[in-house]
Amino acid sequence: MDLFILTVTCAIDLVLGLFVLLRDSRKVYARLFVAITIILTVWIVSNYLTNHHVDNLTVANFANKLAFVSGFGVVLSALLFTYNFPSKRDVSSMERFVVAMVSTIILAISMTDWVAGVVTLNSSNMLEFSIGPLLWLYIIGFGSTIVMMARNLLGSWKKQSEVKRRQSRLIFIGFAGSALFGLVLNVIIPVIAGNWDSTRYGPLVTVLLVGTIAYAIVKHGLFDIRLAAVRGVAYVFSLATLGGLYYLVALGISEFFMQGQQSDAISQSPASIALALVLAFIFQPVKKFFDRLTNSIFFHDNYDTDDFLERLGHELSTASELRDLLQRASNEIGGTIQAEQAFFFVRYGDGQAHQLNAGTARHGALASSEVPVMDAYVGSAGSGAIVVDLLPETEPIYKLLRRHKIAIVLPLTHDGAVLSYLLIGRRRSREYTRRDVRVLETIANELVIAIQNALSVQEVKDINATLQQRVNDATKELRASNKQLQRLDAAKDEFVSMASHQLRTPLTSVKGYISMVLEGDAGHISATQRQLLEEAFTSSERMVHLIGDFLNVSRLQTGKFMIDTHPTDLVKLVRQEVSSLKTTADAHDLKLRFRAPAYFPVLYVDEGKLRQVVMNFIDNAIYYSREDTTISVELSVVDGSAVLQVRDTGIGVPKLEQAHLFTKFFRASNARKQRPDGTGVGLFLAKKVVVAHGGSVLFESTEGKGSVFGFRLPIKKLSSAPTESTEEFKE
Question: What are phi and psi for residue 119, nearest 5 degrees?
C-alpha cells in the first residue's frame, strides 16, 4: 500500500511539473516549480526508505536525514517560487543574504543527528526515532520560510490584478495546507506521540500542493485546461487504438503463419516490423480523427483558425468604406470567438480630429476623454493584446475597461503610433484562452492595412467633398462677379452709346463746316490754309468713323447691329478706300498698290459696314508699316470666294498674342507702343461684319516682318438678294 501511494504521488507530481515546464520553459517560475516537484519526490522517497529499511539502519538513518533536508528544500524552493510568481518581486540584497545564510545553516544541520536524531531498533525489532537537540531550530526556520512565502503572496495584494489575486490565493492555500498537514504528519504527531508511522502518509499532501500550484498557473494564465484534457484523451485513444490494432494483427500472424515459433521470433519477424512501421505512419491520421471526434463532442463551439482568417480576409478585401469595413470585421471577429460585443475605435483626419466607434449590434463606445488613458498604458506596456483580467485593479485602464464590459483590447499601431483599438467584450460560453489572444494578435497587421486603405479612401472622399464645396463657393462668387461685370459692361455700353450719339452731331457739323471752307463757300483760302483744313477734315472724318465703330459695338451688345445688304461693286468700294487713304499713306512715306481682277461679280453686301472693314485694314497697315515700304491691297476670286488681302511689311503681331487679336478692345503690346491712341475695336468689328456676311477673316503675321489682313466672302451666297433686306446680328 505504501509503495502504491508513493508511486502514484511521485508520478502525479513529476508529470504536473513537466507539464508546466513544457508550457512555459523560458519562465523562471516554471523551472522553480519543477524543482519543487523534484525535491518533493526526493522527500517522498526518503520518507519511504526511512520507514521500510528495518534491516538496514544505515540506509534508514541516511534517508531520515535526507527527508529533513528535502523537506526544508521544498519550502525553500517554494519561497524562491513566490519571489517570481504570480508577479516578480524585488528582493533587497540584505534579504537575499539572510535567506541564503539561514537556509545554508538549516540544510547543513539537517544532515546531522542534531536535527534528525538517530534511527534505532527496539526490542520488538521496530524502528525508533529520536529527537535531535536542534530540531526546534529546524522548526523555526521551516515556519519562518512559510511566513515569508505568505508575505510574498499577500504583501502586494492591492497592486495585483484579480487574476493574480486568485493565483496568490490558490498558491497560499496550497502551500499553507500542504505545509500544515506535512508538519503535523511528519513532525508534530511523531514528537508528541512518539510514533513515526504517520510519516507514511506524508506524500499525499504533496498532491494538494503540486496540483494547486499547477492549476493556478495554467487556469488563470489563459490556459484552456479543457482543451488540454480533451487532447490528452484523444492522444490516449490514438495510442490505444494503434496498440490494439498491433496486438490483433500480431496475434493473427502468430496464429496463422508462425505456429510453433517463439514469441521473440514473432516480434522480430519482418511482418511485425513492417506492421510497426505502418502503424507509425498512420498515427497522425488516427490522431487527427480522434481530435475531430473529441472536438465535435466537447468543442462544438470551437472555430478553425485558417477558416476564420480566410473569412476575415474576404470581409476586409470587399469593404472600402470605413464604417462598413469596421462593422464587417467586428461581426466576423465577434461571431467567431463568441464575444458579447466587438467594436473598433478609430482616429483619423488632420491631427486625428475625427473619431469613429463602429462594430457589432449594441456595442459600446469610447469617449474621446477616455482614450488618453488607453494611450498612456499602451505607451508604457507596449502594443500587445491587453487582457483585462491580467491587469492590476489599481491601473486606471482596468476600471475603464471594466466599466465598458471589455475583456480584451488589441491596439492597432502603425509607425509606433496607435491607429485604432479593437475592443472585445466578454465571451458568452467560456473564458478566453491564449489561443484566442494569439489569433487576435495574428490579425493585427491585416487589420491595420485594411483600416489604412479605408482611411485613404475616406480622405479622398473628404478631399473631393471639400473641393466640390470650394468649387461651388468659387462658382457662386464668379457668378456674382460676372453679374457685377455684366452690370458694369452694360453701364459702359450705355455710356459709349450715349457719348457716341452726343459726339456724332457736333462732329458732323465740324466736318460739314470744314468741307464748306475747303470748297470756297467762305471765301478764298491760301495753300497753307487748305493743307491745314484738309488735315482737320481728315481727322474729323477719322473721328466720325471711330464714333461709328463705338456705336456698332454698342449695337452688337444690344442686338441692334443690322446688316443692310445692297448690290455692291466690291472693286469700286476697295479702290475708293485706297484713294481716300492715299494722302495718309503719302504722309507716312508709304506707297499703296491696289490690284483687282478684270471681272468681279456684284455682291449683295452692306456697303457701309464693309467699306469700314476695308478702311480699317488699310488704315492699320499704314500706321504699323515702316517708311519707304509698299502696302499691297489685292482683291481676287479664289475657289468661289471673294478674297481681300492687305499685305504690309510692318511690325507684325507677337505670336503669343495672335489668338486674342480679334477680341474686343484688345491691342498687341507692340501696337500700343507704335500707336497709343488706338481703341482695339476696329478688328473686333471687322470680324463681326465679315462673319455676319457668312465669310471669314484672313490673318497671317510674323513679328518684325509684317502681316496680312483680309476676308473671304462666299460669292454664291452673296450673288443674290437675301429673303429679307436687312438682317439683325447680335454678339
Answer: -95, 125
